[in-house]
Amino acid sequence: MKRTASAVWHGDLKKGHGALATKSGVLKNTPYSFVNRFENEPGTNPEELLAAAHAGCFTMALTAELGRAGFTPTRMATQATVSLEQVDGQWTVTAVHLENEAWVPGIASDQFQSIAAGAKAGCPVSRLFRAAITLAARLEPS
């Protein structure tokens, strides 16, 4: 299975601008620029898209792992935070932190933590980021 996205850029780095697109059409000529990425102007950027991909992937992986253990969550919410920092003069993704809240009837906290850790290790995007990921998973009352 392969998924495809593309980027087009016009101009120099600081004043230029680009557009992102996905083959599915979910992103179509979605603008991005230096100020979106480095100056917190509204708009998307590669790191935000990595965070969205990781939040979605982990949430699905955790749901699957819970299902294999015989549990069905009533709700799952995950936020992924991608850290982009200067390392030796180069911009580097240095960490990814997952923050998950799950409403899972009938599960014990220690069992949930074990399943969440397994989902973090097994999620395809997690495996891509393996060295930089942290996770805080919180089981909410059902």
Walk me through the structure.
The protein is of the alpha+beta class and 142 residues long. It has 2 domains: 5-38, no CATH class; 46-140, K homology (KH) domain (GMP Synthetase, Chain A, domain 3), CATH 3.30.300. Helix content is 34%, strand content 36%. It is built from 4 helices and 6 strands. The strands form 2 sheets. It has a 3-stranded antiparallel sheet. Strands 4-5-6 form a 3-stranded mixed sheet. A hairpin with a 7-residue loop joins strand 2 and strand 3 (30-33). Helix 2 crosses helix 3 (109-122). The longest helix has 23 residues, at 46-68. The protein is elongated, with a radius of gyration of 18 Å. The model has no long low-confidence stretch (mean pLDDT 93).
Give me some keywords for this one.
142 residues, GMP Synthetase, Chain A, domain 3, 34% helix, single chain, 3-stranded mixed sheet, 2 domains, alpha+beta
Task: Provide a compact summary of the structure.
The chain has four helices and six strands, in the order βββααββααβ. The chain has 142 residues and is of the alpha+beta class. It has two domains: 5-38, no CATH class; 46-140, K homology (KH) domain (GMP Synthetase, Chain A, domain 3), CATH 3.30.300.
Q: Mind summarizing the main beta sheet?
A: 3 strands, antiparallel
Structural Rg: 18 Å
The CATH homology group name of the largest domain: K homology (KH) domain
CATH architecture group name of the largest domain: 2-Layer Sandwich
